[in-house]
Amino acid sequence: MKNPILVTILLFSVLIPFKSTGQEIAVTFATESQSHSELLELPKGVQSFLSRQALLAKVDEEIKRLQLKGYISTLASEREIADDQGLPVLEVIFNLGQQWQNLVVAFPKSVEPYLKKSPWLKLLETAPNSLLQPHHGDSSTFLKKNHSLRKLKIPIDKVPEFMNQLSQSLAQEYSPFSKIKFVNIEALEFPDISVTLDVLLIPQRTVDSLVVKGYPNVDYGLLKHRGGLKLPLAFSEKTIQKAEENLSTSPYLSIQRPSEVLFEDKRTTLYMYLQKKETNQLEGILGFGSDPENQSIQLNGYLNLQLWNNFNKSEQFNLNYKADGNQQERLEISASLPYIRQSPFGIHTSFELFRRDSTFTTASTRGQITYKPLGPLEIALGYTSIKSTTGPASDGIQNNIADFQQGLWGLEAKIEQPKNSILMPTNYRLTLQYAYGSSEENSLSGSSTVAMKNRFPRQRTSIELEYLWDLWVNHYFYIHHNSRWINGENLRINELHRFGGTQSLRGFNENLLETAQLHLIQTEYRLAFSDAFYIHHLTDLAFYRDQIDEQMTTNYSLGLGIATMTRAGLLKLQIAQGFGKRSDFSSNNTKIHLVFNSRF
Fold first, then answer.
1. What is the pTM assigned to this prediction?
2. Which CATH class is domain 102-200?
3. β-bridge partners, 540
4. Which of 6, 62, 144, 316 is paired with 329 by a 20 to 30 Å CA distance?
5. 206-276 maps to which CATH number?
6. What Rg do the C-alpha atoms of the chain give, in angstroms?
């Protein structure tokens, strides 16, 4: 957008008229005083101009530049001379005069709060004699009222900076058609010039209409609460730019071009140019490893289906299935609607089912009310119900597995900023979760056949951070940190966190490890050869509490990987070797992870 305030600076400008001719003009430039010749920013030697108007424009541009340097009485005159071959040449001579140093600006006292918003002016006000004693007078147009005038001494070469800073401050509260200019220009004692700051302020315009081009079916709840465009909206260039920045981080749309504003007599309309993104995603992961017991190849996999914004309501549906090839399966289904009737409130529901052969099955159901106040921040309050049942293959006493039912109230806060890239889709993401409730079990007391209900307190805490550092050109460092705790009495194996595999601890089988306390860090150093290909190392470290001996244990893995964009989607290949407990240093523990991601 253009400068929000129209700034007019009126200084002395005297130019002696040139004679008119329709022919191409040969011109040289010089100064009256040889000591001023280095001040000109005009080409040396003979220059050609196609018309008199082009020459006048060039001379006028140079005079204005010299005036801003303090040579406000600059004159330009012409004379005809002959060049080395005797051909006539027009010589333009600049008489710069004295260089005035300072501008003593008289301004209404009501403008002073806007001047103080400028860091440069704050420094100037603390300088000796920079802020002179006030006197009384009238500002010709400032709100049509009399104000006490104050004076500020400014170096002439700082005048453009002064006017720009003042115009930007005023633009926050007044219309972009407001004007500020210098009037009553008088010479004081050399080298100071006196001017009056004349201010014409027009009340701020209000954006009362929004037109979306390119994606007219966009969810207006997204524009209001992620972009901050809640009509009617006081017009401000910074507000519109901030809205574009927030919307550009949305996974559903992109900004095609900068927004435009149409000012009419009784209405102000904001035009936004948006484009819908393809956000549906199918991701499949296949893991290859060797079974150390029978020396055979063992397969484990992962499937993630993501259906987002298909009804233009910012809705999300996710289906996640994971299997480790050893009769362990996990199914997760979730759905959310973030902006109900264009409000910042939404709903989120999820269902998770985990089954370990015929030992036990755990089902978890969660419902949340979400709140998105502004930008990428989301806050959620919800309730989670967890029910686990044991199967015929379980030995509950020996394996610490039992039937239970839990009810947990939870609070969650999340902020994330994606990147407009399939190859590296995440800039940063932070999720904080806390849930509190109880776990209920049935047990027999002594020789009684009547089941007794035992209730134990439960607390679940989770902190997850994902960040991508742009180190320098084509070099990136990615880190993913995940910490989880389960606190309470009588913890059971079938309620613990399970980890291991491609999305947690690479180099290990899916869901291989179990714990009530986990600190997991995944890192990758990425070297990108183009926007469609990079190679990386990987280091994963898991620090967790072993449930058998109650000791903190460390597992880690090392490996290499590549990622490349194909016509069908993103393809990743990772090779990782796991070390630590329930692993060894042999090649039998090397895992190959193949990931394919396609958007549609």
1. 0.73
2. alpha beta
3. 522, 557
4. 316
5. 3.10.20.310
6. 36
